[in-house]
Design a protein that fits this description.
Blueprint (H helix, E strand, L loop, with lengths): L1 E6 L6 E5 L13 E6 L2 E11 L27 E3 L7 H13 L4 H6 L4 H4 L6 E8 L11 H13 L1 E3 H8 L3 H9 L3 E8 L21 H13 L9 E5 L5 H14 L3 E5 L7 H10 L8 E5 L5 H13 L2 E6 L11 E6 L17 H11 L3 E6 L4 H8 L4 E5 L10 E6 L15 H12 L3 E5 L6 E5 L17 E3 L4 E3 L6 E3 L13 E5 L1 H11 L5 E4 L9 H10 L5 E4 L12 E6 L3 H4 L6 H13 L10 E6 L5 H7 L3 H15 L6 E9 L2 H16 L9 E14 L2 E10 L2 H14 L6 E7 L6
Parallel strand pairs: 9-14, 9-15, 10-12, 10-13, 11-12, 13-14, 16-26, 17-24, 17-25, 23-24, 25-26
Antiparallel strand pairs: 1-2, 1-4, 3-4, 3-5, 6-7, 6-8, 18-22, 19-20, 20-21, 27-29, 27-30, 28-29
Helix pairs in contact: 1-11, 4-6, 7-8, 17-18, 18-19
The structure holds adenosine-5'-diphosphate and zinc ion.
Adenosine-5'-diphosphate (ADP) binds next to helix 8.
Length: about 750
Amino acid sequence: MIARIATEISLNKLFDYEVPPEMEASISVGSRVKVPFKTREILGYVTELIEHSPEMSAESSLLLQPTECPQKLKPILEIIGEQSLITPKVKDLALWMAAYYCCTIEVALRSLLPEVVRREQEGWKKQLFVRYNAEAPEPEKLTLRQQEVLAFIQQQGELPLTDLIEQLSCTAEVVRKIERTGKISIASLKVLRDPYSNVRILPTTALNLNEEQAPCLKQIIQAMDSSDHSQTKPFLLFGVTGSGKTEIYLQAIAHALEKGQGAIVLVPEISLTPQTVERFKSRFAEGPLRSQVAVLHSHLSAGERHDEWHKIRRGDARIVIGARSAIFAPVEPLGVIIVDEEHEHSYKQEESPRYNARDVAVVRAQMEKTVVVLGSATPSMESYYNAIQGKYTLLKLSKRVDDIQMPQVAIVDMCSEIRVDRGIPLFSTRLKEAIRRQLEESHQVILFLNRRGYATQLQCPDCGYVAECPNCSVSMVYHRRAQLLKCHICGHHVQAPYRCPDCNKPDIRYSGAGTERIEETLQKLFPQARIRRMDSDTLKKKEDYRDILTAFGLGKIDILLGTQMITKGLHFPRVTLVGILNADISLHRPDFRASERTFQLITQVAGRAGRGDDEGEVIVQTFTPWAPAILYAKNHDYENFYADEITSRKELHYPPASRLALLTIKSMDEEKLQLTAQHIRQLLDGESFQSIRPLVINGPVPALLERSQGYYRYHILLRTAKMMALSRKLFELFQSVKCPKGVSFTVDIDPMDLT
Ligand code: ADP
Ligand code: ZN
């Protein structure tokens, strides 16, 4: 038997190795192995098991280079772990990903598994367990104490040694003495770490679906039960906030479990709140559909992540809920994939492989002939376009459950708030009054500002000096409590100056308020109110997020102030007012998605208001009250926003009317950078790319973020309708271009971040 191996070193080649006969029974596609390579030993994955190593022909459908085939194959040295870590289906998904997102196979495979799972040997937590041996003969000559201890072990069957010692206040010595009789054994066993072990979960049962929900679920279930999956399209579940999308997910998952299948639920990292997880856990905590729910997100310790992952692999947990990378979870068979908040940008990974988990979900569903449901209150332009085009099936929920009204959205024109003497206030009169009113009635308030720190810019009014990061082309942000100027791109920081570093004049001006500044002002305006700020500066420990939300849920906080962290997945019935302090921050970003983002943001933040009995109110502060994104969001009018926006996307050939690939070339040496960028452009204009039509190429031009972490950056933007073909060509280019020393370039397919 021969195994075709993808090594962990970046070669983008597969190598054949001999499988020693004694390993044949335990090896499978996806197994992780140690192999000899030149003079070293390296790790890799089995991508295929074959009988003969043929004269290597290139694997035509993939981007693989022809496999190297030495005369005599070397044997595999070792199989790591008991079970292959990657299922054949997930492996195929990785190969697709490498081809589409222009990365090497190794990089694609590596991203499938958490680091700790890849380094198998260190993963398990071991603990000493004491076990009663019923078959062993009764021991003689035990002391009274030993008899007592033995009786307890017999009653328990098996328990951790530490528990035994603690519960009986006995010594390890006593237990060891009993062990010598053979009546008990002590062995080191794997224990599972459960990140939710101390959370009490109350079981819930399925709700009766309302007249909008029921037909949606019916269609999903029909697709799940269909024998002909060639007709199955992805579903786009477009339901306003609070319309009961999650209930549909839960019932679709229940249906999968009934059929003996599992499910993957993707949720953006910041929506993966304890609240969200508990909703899933509690539904499947008891009853005939009882299943463990595994949770995968970045706040788990490495050990917890390792154990959750193995629970899935062994089939102990059939439901996986997690952020981006959970799309690779080895659930088998897979009955349904849910992508909640499908429009979220965090589904895109901003480092190689630069995949979008939503799109990978659609491909995985297609490859595994299963059903995928993309849900959102504000679908991405891409997904809605696909629905309009008939590629996706649109399901709609237009009302909140139980006739709860959509919140009233008021727009405050900040231009009319400017006072000659005081300049621009942070809070409009209207917002201040509304906060006061809600506090008087003991309601809760959420305030949103997507900007950390105290002030985004430090400027000297005398000489015009602006504090900029020496490594990046952005201004430094003033953090008052820490008395630092920080760069939010590279993390560079310096002591905040008291005088202008250039002209030494003492009056320095700060502009562009961030959350820290808002918190300070709020405290002055409402000294009685209990205010908490939530942004990445205030969250230090992994429990902080949960603790703040719990406190808010219990009514121990009156005003919760924060960045986008507070916009998602929160359900607090006592929140009646939501304020968006500066809608212009997202609206005026130099990005073709700025309008879309602003619409989504206002709608999502507004969705936090009035989820209980009291009506919700939303106040949006802006200097551009006429902006379509703001007006459509005010009227909860997604369809017309879409119609408006798609027109301009078509005119400008932006997604979804076209597809994008972004090449970023960077170097510390600007001249070398320019030359390389020009050279790449010439290659793109060359013959090899002629077959791709249409193809529009812009650039090279300096990137919006011209400098980052000391590197100058250039962009080349490509637009086409034929992305797979373009990806292939770009990958070839990527492999063949010899960049001069100190210059590097990356390819981003379907980029989200164009800066
Ligand atoms: P979404 O996911 O669309 O924001 P949720 O699923 O969170 O909406 O539903 C909002 C609230 O309505 C939740 O408290 C949920 O328990 C409740 N709910 C959902 N469907 C029903 C139903 N059919 N009957 C009663 N309550 C429901
Ligand atoms: Zn910087």
